[in-house]
């Protein structure tokens, strides 16, 4: 789905020819034309058979406990992945050492990221990008307190905002919010900046040597493909990467919501 979206953006937005896209992406011209004619919501794939749980599964809790304990010890007293592997073998683990080594490396990268982080000021061109986020609020409907979800959009150059409330944070609400926002903006930016919710991102992979990669949800990619948007997901737990809409959430909660908590028509 990402390949289809990239082909369509290159053709419709960057005005590249079919031949150039074919060479650039190592695809046949027939495949490029097929992708350009693609109108379906998402490709259909056969259901994969469930895989058996790795042998490490039953020992993950033990391994995590050992690592958390070692985190408080002096460096020379901490167990290496090899020593942890040997300890698990004594506890009954029959899997390979490589599985332990990869798991330990991923755990350390996730729990103890690099100590030195750099922050680069963000700047945007007109029409380049928007930021999206959800917030949880409470309103009064017919005298009853009700929890709602509020979709927030923020154009990164003009700072124009769009806010719409929904009863839930489902994927249907995500799609409806985008449609309403682009109608209000009277246009569609080139790029969208998002968190990593399940309605948008299926999986985030933590790989210390390649940074963080993720698999976007296929239906969400179909939405991006329809509007020719390049989706960008923030680093996990790095809200400053979409700081404009994060601030907007607080401002709307402080300035706007107190005056409209009892308005029924505000809820979609």
TrEMBL record:
Record InterPro entries: Integrase_cat-core, RNaseH-like_sf, RNaseH_sf
GO biological process: DNA integration
Residues annotated as domain Integrase catalytic: 122-268
GO MF term (any one): nucleic acid binding
Coiled coil: none
UniProt-recorded name of the protein: Integrase catalytic domain-containing protein
């Amino acid at each position: 789905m990402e390949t289809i979206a990239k082909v369509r953006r290159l053709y419709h937005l960057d005005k590249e020819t079919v031949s150039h896209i074919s060479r650039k992406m190592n695809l046949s011209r027939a495949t490029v034309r097929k992708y350009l004619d693609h109108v379906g919501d998402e490709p259909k794939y056969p259901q994969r058979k469930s895989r058996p749980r790795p042998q490490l599964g039953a020992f993950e809790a033990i391994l995590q406990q050992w690592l958390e304990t070692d985190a408080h010890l002096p460096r020379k007293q901490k167990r290496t992945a090899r020593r942890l592997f040997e300890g698990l073998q004594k506890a009954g683990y029959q899997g390979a050492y490589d599985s332990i080594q990869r798991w330990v490396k991923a755990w350390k990268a996730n729990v103890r990221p690099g100590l030195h982080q750099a922050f680069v000021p963000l700047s945007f061109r007109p029409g380049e990008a928007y930021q999206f986020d959800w917030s949880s609020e409470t309103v009064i409907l017919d005298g009853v307190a009700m929890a709602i979800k509020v979709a927030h959009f923020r154009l990164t150059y003009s700072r124009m905002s769009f806010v719409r409330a929904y009863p839930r944070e489902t994927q249907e609400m995500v799609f409806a919010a985008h449609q309403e926002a682009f109608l209000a903006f009277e246009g569609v930016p080139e790029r969208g900046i998002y968190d990593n919710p399940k309605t948008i991102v299926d999986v985030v992979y933590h790989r210390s040597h390649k940074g963080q990669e993720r698999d976007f949800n296929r239906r969400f990619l179909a939405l991006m493909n329809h509007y020719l948007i390049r989706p960008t997901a923030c680093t996990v737990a790095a809200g400053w990467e979409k700081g404009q809409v994060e601030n907007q959430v607080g401002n709307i909660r402080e300035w706007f919501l107190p005056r409209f908590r009892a308005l029924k028509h505000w809820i979609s």
